[in-house]
Amino acid sequence: MKTKIKFVLQAKPENTPGWPHINFNYRQAADQMLSVMQARMPEACFDTLITSDEQGARDSFASDRENYDGLVLITATNNPTLYHAYCDLADTQFPVIIADLPHGGSGAFLNAATRVYKENLPVGLVSSMDYRDLAETVQIIEVLKELKENKILIVSDNPDNPFFSSAKREGLEKHWGVGCVIKNSADVFSLYDSIPLGQAEALADRWLKDCIRPVEPDRAEIVRSAKLYYTLEKLKEQEGCSAVTVDCLSLFYGNRMKAYPCLAFFEMLNNKEVGICEADVDSVLSALISRYGFNRPGFVSDPVIDTSSGQIIYDHCVCSSRMSGYDDPRSCEYYIRSHAEDQKGASVQTLLPLQQPVTTYRFNTDCHAFCIHSGTAVGNVGLDRGCRTKLAAESNVRSIMKNWNMDIFGWHRVTVYGDWRDKLMNLARMKGMRIIEEDEGRF
């Protein structure tokens, strides 16, 4: 179903002097913005209203919530003050964004921004001469709608695993509209033997052909990983799920898995799907947001701080080879390796792009909190400790170390290529989350 967005321009009555100027062509300005937003969201439907009626905005808000997936107000003049209506009425269940038409309603916009920050209002904000920034922010409304169409398959034999606690699952449902289905290892391997060997061998041979070379695993191990990929896909389909996370370490260490899911998740992430290790639903949510918001996979990792180099190194044994985005034909080279901690099974060591901005973040579903930091990718680390893929990024690592909150966010973070900080901060604010900027401040 298409995303429906109400697009409101705060305008002056005819023949009224003031910013942007008397008898400004608001329709033309609206059309210019809409053309950029429609290019970013070709499936979305925009209904435009050019108005000076603040009371009308208040009176129609209840019906707007029923008829639209979100609302955008453009402060295209300083008076009237429609932004007060939307600041007063906004909540975390109906996305509201206030954007400036620079040199049009900038005073009104800054008044709105003052209220949003001072009162911690769940309102997105954007002020840019580049309408692509507006379009990226408005696309959050589409992301939030698409998230509600998702259900996460959790595979674990431990119902007390804190990574998918009842509080986290309730938070996913309440705040994001994302449901969960829990299955155990027996459910997985009741399907495992039904996967045709030839199908698994074909996928394994493609991985072997595409990789630089396999280092530790033999072909039989890689075929088992391919068979697990098709098993998880089949179970997802049976349960109506779009994403999966597996309690892989405890299951494999306990001899309740026939293969690690690292290569299975590698394949899913390359195919615009989300497969995440360790039964970690917070990372699944964060990766889904990368998928829908940035059209590229996220890299879930255990970060390491190195103050000697000013780098943070993101370690893990699962990483897509399509980190530059699903519309980008480039693919990263990779080795097929054993899983690092126990030197068993099969995983992937991806050589990631360098000298590019990266954004690292995590959404917490039970504490309703969000953390973020930014950096520049500078190296692929080959050290034979920790996990297989290691991406080094330059950042304000001493502040990250100081602001790190293991109690709320744990160790995992999700890294995505590109500078997505503003968009993610707006999304978190619109959901009413506590926000921690990990790289802010001084050590």
Automatic annotation (TrEMBL):
Keywords: Carbohydrate metabolism, Isomerase. GO terms for molecular function: intramolecular oxidoreductase activity, interconverting aldoses and ketoses. Signal peptide: none annotated. It comes from the Bacteria. One of its GO terms (cellular component) is cytoplasm. GO terms for biological process: monosaccharide metabolic process. This is L-fucose isomerase-like protein. It comes from Cuneatibacter caecimuris. The lineage of its organism: Bacteria, Bacillati, Bacillota, Clostridia, Lachnospirales.
